[in-house]
Write the structure tokens for this entry.
Amino acid sequence: MDSASHLPGLRHSYEGEPLLESGMADDPVTQFALWFADAVAAGLPEPNAVVVATSSAGGRPSARTVLLKGFDERGFVFFTNYESRKGRDLAENPRACLLFPWHPIRRQVRVEGSVTRISREDSAAYFHSRPYGSRIGAWASRQSAVVESRERLDARYRELAERWPEDPPMPDFWGGFRVAPAEVEFWQGQTDRMHDRLRYRLAHGSWVMERLAP
């Protein structure tokens, strides 16, 4: 039997306490910190894994998973090759949507906002904290470009490792992006698909909380 025939019956019933406005923090970054701590405590694999959705100037969307490397009241930070597809998208259309899919604890967080590059100094500080192999990999991989073969990619890595056996510099084409939130939605699964969705929306410099229909 075709495995696709099982799709209509694949579902999971969520149960738990409701997500109420009275239990939420005054701002979304504080609330995110609380939920992120819960995701870590629950032992989720890579709780900082986040789907980043971007769009080109022409409206062509794309999405991929990256790792969140910092967040504060200014926004959510991840690092990448600026010449990758997401880097090119963000140069043309500096807005993004982030999605943290914490399904084992029946939660999701969605962030929408404008995107800017972080400073070269902050990017360099993170780059030099990375393992040596990851730093060489940032040079070896022209992210999103067509590669002739795996062998050629590995050969390029070896060439660069021989060139910089100890401390590779940070590439000019690599660094961090910060997503400054304009909307942050906290989703918690409930029974009968009556899920809780509470959204913080920035309005005239202040956060407004709204409940959305599931």
Notes: The beta strands are 49-55, 61-67, 70-72, 75-81, 95-102, 107-117, 174-188, 196-203, 206-211. The radius of gyration is 20 Å. The mean pLDDT is 94. Residues 84 and 144 are 5 Å apart (CA to CA).
